[in-house]
Design goal:
single chain; 152 residues; alpha+beta; Alpha-Beta Plaits; four-stranded antiparallel beta sheet; globular; binds ribavirin triphosphate; Nucleoside diphosphate kinase; nucleoside diphosphate kinase activity
């Protein structure tokens, strides 16, 4: 796969939607240069969230996490571009906003790990799994003239 085609799944969690942060968060990824391939407000079912967080099912905080993620709509989107997964995670900041570097989304907009505003895939494999899970009908595919200016 060409590096420029790497994709990641990003979500603004219910607290971020409630606080009106969707536009700000999407804007950061757009202005960095990533192409938006899908964008949808989703009211996730428990089944979807159990699949999404399959690695965390045994964690003590899992029931709280499920309730948090079901407390309102989630703004789910897909970014594409060079380094989408790693840069995506870097832009979100450390999971616990108390440890997030200044300038990251979580440092700029959050204080608690249980209300950390956003999600980003942690590997190319989980990105592809999460994109298929949240966007079962598929995502857009299109060319952008700006890519000729953005990449060397
Ligand atoms: P995410 O999946 O949301 O991007 O977060 P992550 O990979 O950085 O962190 P992960 O360990 O996968 O945890 C998923 C989400 O669970 C909540 N959490 N709460 N101790 C706690 O109360 C706790 N630990 C994790 C956070 O919302 C975290 O983003």
């Amino acid at each position: 796969m060409a590096a420029n085609l790497e994709r990641s799944f990003i979500a603004v969690k219910p607290d971020g939607v409630e606080r009106g942060l969707v536009g700000e968060i999407v804007r950061r990824f757009e202005t960095r240069g990533f192409k938006i391939l899908a964008l949808q407000l989703v009211q996730p079912s428990e089944e979807l969230l159990r699949e999404h967080y399959q690695d965390l099912a045994s964690k003590p905080f899992f029931p709280k996490l499920l309730a948090y993620m079901r407390s309102g709509p989630v703004a789910a989107f897909v970014i594409q571009g060079k380094g989408a997964v790693k840069i995506g995670r870097d832009m979100l900041g450390a999971t616990n906003p108390q440890d997030s570097a200044p300038g990251t989304i979580r440092a700029d907009f959050a204080l608690d790990i249980g209300k950390n505003v956003c999600h980003g895939s942690d590997s190319v494999e989980s990105a592809e799994r999460e994109i298929a899970l949240w966007f079962p009908a598929g995502v857009a595919s299109y060319t952008r003239a700006v890519d000729a200016v953005l990449y060397e």
